[in-house]
Structures are given as C-alpha cells and as structure tokens.
C-alpha cells in the first residue's frame, strides 16, 4: 500500500449504442434503448432470442435503464440491427438513437402526463441543437419523484402543488411551466447552456459549477424525492433486482412467460418491474430488499473489457456487505458500472487497485497498488 497519489480526472466518453456499438473483450456491445423503458412480452422474448443468436446469451441492464447485448460479432451487427428494427426497438436514424437519452418514470400510464411529455420530447429532439453525447432528460412526473438520483441534465418534475416544472441539473429549484410551453422552455434553457459555453463542460451540473444560471430559472422547488423502490411484490406485479446488471437470456425468458404479464419495465438501480404478474423468480435475481448486492456495483472487468486490467465481479461478490453504503469495483477509471460517487470505490490500474473513499473512479485515491488478496476486509475504510 502506498500514500495518496493524485490522478487526472477521467473525462467520460461516449456510450455504446445500437448503430454505434463498442468493441469489448468478448465482441461488440450493442446498447438497446426500449421506448418508454418498456418491453412488451413479444419484444422481451425476441430480445432474448437475439441475445442468444447474435450475442453470448447475456443481457446487461444499465444504470440508465437501457439494455445491452454483449458478444456480438462484427459480421452479425447488420443483421442484429434489422432484427431490432423489426421489433420497434431501434431508431431508424442513428443520430436520433444517440440523442434519445430519456429516464422515464416507471409508473407511467398510456395517455398520462409522463407519456405525453415523452411523445412531445421525441417530436422535439430532431429540432434541438446537438448536445454532448451523455446529456439527457428525466421525466420524473409519476405518482412520486423517483428519478432524482438519475443522471440527467434537463429535469421535468412536479412541485409540491402538482404543477409541472423544468429544472436544470445542478441547482435545487426550477421554473414552473405547463404543457403548452414545455418544449419552448426546454429549447430556451438548452440555448442558454450552449451560448454560455456548456458544450465544453459536457454536462449541465458540471457547467453550473463555474457559470451562474439566471435566477428566473430557479424559482420553484420540486417535490421531495420518494423512498427508493426495492425488490418485492407491488400492487401491480413484482420488482426484481439484477446483480451487477447481468441477466441471462434464459432467465429473462422465464420471467416474461409467466401468466398475466403485461410488460417489463426497466428502472434505475438495475431493477426490473414485471407488471401484472407475481411469478416465482428464477435463480440469479434479487427478490427481497436489503441485499448487499443492490449497493454493490461492478463492470464486467477483465478479460471482457479491453480497458480493464483486473477482474471485478468475483471480488465484488466477495466484498459485498462489508461497506455500510455503496461499493463500486471498476475495471478502469471510466466507471461504467456507476459513473458517480460511491462510499468506497476500487479502481483497477495496471493489474492492481486504487481505493477511493466517498468518490468516483477518476477521483484521487486514498491508497494505491492494492492486490486482490489485500482486499479481504474493507471495514477499516468504511
């Protein structure tokens, strides 16, 4: 173990899409963004079949409630795109696919406010200026505020009286709007972001650290965040946790075939909501609250990612529960599994680990050069 070592912050890059996949150690990673973060039973069954036919049979659930098919051969990529388009799981325009970064309130209802906002946003996105790739939108307009911790730059929320507001990520308050001017307000806020140099910062919250948002955009407070959802039965189905966001196609297929399933909704924190049914979940899912695996995050690591020099998930399973809060095992400084602060972060570097307390993988470590065998007990760092 060595003393603290300063490390340059890692500028986050692009995320894999369907049209623009990323090469990993086991083949292409093809990200699928289901519309409204929802899969119908036929779409879910088709996705499982595609993961087996063109990938390695594993489906990832990301922190932004998207899915990834892993292990796709480059020669199979065009056929996979055609199959996804046939299931209405793909934007025909590659540019639009990259811009459709939308967090959806999990309890959205057809024709409801969240659904209407989603439709308006899809109609408006092609008319908006191009933003840095990871910027996105949160439609936090369900029965309770569920997306406060989600990564989004432009937040549609409700105030304490139920009125719609738009809030820039990084400030506490927003501006009250209504459905007649909602997209005009978004366009105006986005224009301010660009005119004041926000493109260089790359994210709204990062930009607001050095640039003041006009007071007119900071008038109304949003309602308080609700308690996070957790695995277990609900009034309308079953919520399941997905350890490390990794699902076998066979397990997902078993879930979706349960009698009475209405749809499968993808949620933050690597949760799935199986609506309309209470089936017996197959092995590999978290079915009750309080599991340490819900607060333990790990990317695929080596040898599956060419950036990683360390194995991650076996270590994460071994250390789960040793930290009272969140634990993140990251194969490199990019931090794909949890691109934000954790109570304890272990970052792979040159075959060993750096340890960051209360920070992200690209932050300054407290200790460096730790071997996996040195990491049997984290209680001293918690």
TrEMBL record:
The lineage of its organism: Bacteria, Pseudomonadati, Pseudomonadota, Alphaproteobacteria, Rhodobacterales. Keywords: 4Fe-4S, Heme, Iron, Iron-sulfur, Metal-binding, Oxidoreductase. Residues 358-382 are annotated as: Disordered. It comes from the Bacteria. This is Nitrite/Sulfite reductase ferredoxin-like domain-containing protein. Residues 21-85 form the Nitrite/Sulfite reductase ferredoxin-like domain. Pfam families: NIR_SIR_ferr (PF03460). InterPro entries: NIR_SIR_4Fe-4S, NiRdtase/SiRdtase_haem-b_fer, Nit/Sulf_reduc_fer-like_dom_sf, NO2/SO3_Rdtase_4Fe4S_sf, NO2/SO3_Rdtase_FeS/sirohaem_BS.
């Amino acid at each position: 173990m060595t003393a603290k070592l300063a490390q340059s912050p890692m500028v986050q890059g692009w995320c894999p899409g369907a049209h623009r996949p990323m090469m990993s150690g086991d083949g292409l990673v093809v990200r699928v963004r289901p519309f409204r973060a929802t899969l119908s039973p036929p779409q879910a069954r088709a996705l499982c079949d595609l993961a087996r036919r063109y990938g390695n049979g594993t489906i990832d659930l990301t922190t932004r409630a998207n899915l990834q098919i892993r292990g796709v051969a480059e020669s199979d990529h065009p056929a996979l795109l055609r199959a996804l388009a046939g299931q209405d799981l793909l934007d025909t325009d590659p540019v639009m696919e990259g811009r459709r970064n939308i967090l959806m309130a999990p309890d959205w209802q057809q024709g409801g406010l969240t659904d209407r906002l989603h439709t308006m946003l899809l109609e408006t996105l092609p008319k908006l200026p191009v933003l840095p790739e990871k910027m996105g939108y949160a439609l936090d307009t369900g029965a309770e505020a569920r997306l406060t911790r989600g990564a989004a730059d432009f937040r549609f929320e409700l105030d304490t009286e139920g009125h719609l507001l738009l809030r820039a990520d990084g400030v506490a308050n927003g501006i009250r709007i209504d459905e007649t001017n909602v997209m005009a307000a978004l366009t105006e806020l986005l224009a301010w972001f660009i005119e004041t140099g926000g493109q260089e910062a790359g994210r709204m919250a990062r930009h607001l650290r050095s640039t003041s948002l006009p007071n007119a955009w900071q008038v109304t407070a949003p309602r308080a965040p609700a308690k996070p959802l957790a695995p277990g039965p609900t009034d309308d189905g079953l919520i399941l946790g997905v350890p490390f966001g990794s699902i076998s196609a066979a397990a997902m297929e078993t879930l979706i075939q349960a009698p009475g399933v209405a749809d499968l909704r993808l949620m933050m924190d690597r949760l799935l909501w199986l609506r309309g049914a209470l089936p017996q979940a197959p092995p590999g899912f978290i079915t009750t609250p309080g599991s340490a695996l819900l607060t333990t995050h790990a990317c695929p690591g080596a040898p599956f990612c060419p950036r990683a020099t360390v194995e991650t998930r076996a270590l994460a399973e071994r250390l789960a529960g040793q930290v009272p809060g969140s634990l993140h095992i990251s194969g490199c400084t990019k931090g794909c599994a949890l691109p934000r602060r954790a109570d304890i972060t272990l970052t792979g570097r040159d075959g060993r680990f750096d340890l960051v307390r209360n920070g992200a993988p690209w932050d300054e470590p407290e200790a460096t050069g730790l071997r996996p065998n040195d990491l049997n007990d984290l209680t001293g760092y918690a």
